[in-house]
From TrEMBL:
Spans annotated as Disordered: 1-48
Top-level lineage group: Bacteria
Residue spans of biased composition, Polar residues class: 31-40
Protein name: Uncharacterized protein
UniProt feature, compositional bias: Basic and acidic residues: 1-14
Protein source organism: Auraticoccus monumenti
């Protein structure tokens, strides 16, 4: 018999994504569902299932409405921010988050239905990170 994990104890790692580039955060980080703010925990993660993220991304692709982008931000920004902090200092991590969601908004038409929503979000975050920190060689720690 499977019991449901309380929402505040769920981990992004508990929901394996079909995307090899999905943002998987270390289990030792606290998990919440709130978006990052200036007064919040510096690494507020998210527990959004890939199915939920994919559904929101699909609606964004079709409607491109501000409320849909806000839903996507609420679902995914804590994990994107935590991931960015793993690869950049806080000011740059914040810039990566801003540019990622700007790119998602302007590139909503590039989403292909059927592709993992998390994969689409993380691919944009990775592109933004590489824009600021291009890989310099095979030993570069940037993913």
């Amino acid at each position: 018999m499977r019991t449901e994990t309380p929402r505040n104890e769920r981990h992004l790692d508990d929901d394996p994504s079909p995307c090899p580039h999905a943002l998987h955060l270390p289990r030792h980080l606290p998990r919440t569902t709130s978006a990052p703010t200036a007064t919040s925990d510096p690494v507020p993660p998210v527990s959004a299932s890939d199915e939920r993220v994919t559904a929101v991304v699909a609606v964004l692709h079709e409607q491109r409405g501000v409320p849909v982008l806000a839903d996507l931000y609420d679902l995914t920004s804590p994990a994107v921010y935590a991931w960015a902090l793993d690869h950049a200092p806080p000011p740059l991590a914040e810039q990566i988050v801003v540019e990622t969601y700007t790119d998602l908004w302007t590139g909503a038409g590039t989403y292909r239905p059927g592709v993992s929503g998390w994969c689409w979000v993380t691919a944009h975050a990775l592109v933004v990170l590489r824009r600021h920190h291009p890989p310099t060689g095979k030993d570069d720690p940037v993913p």
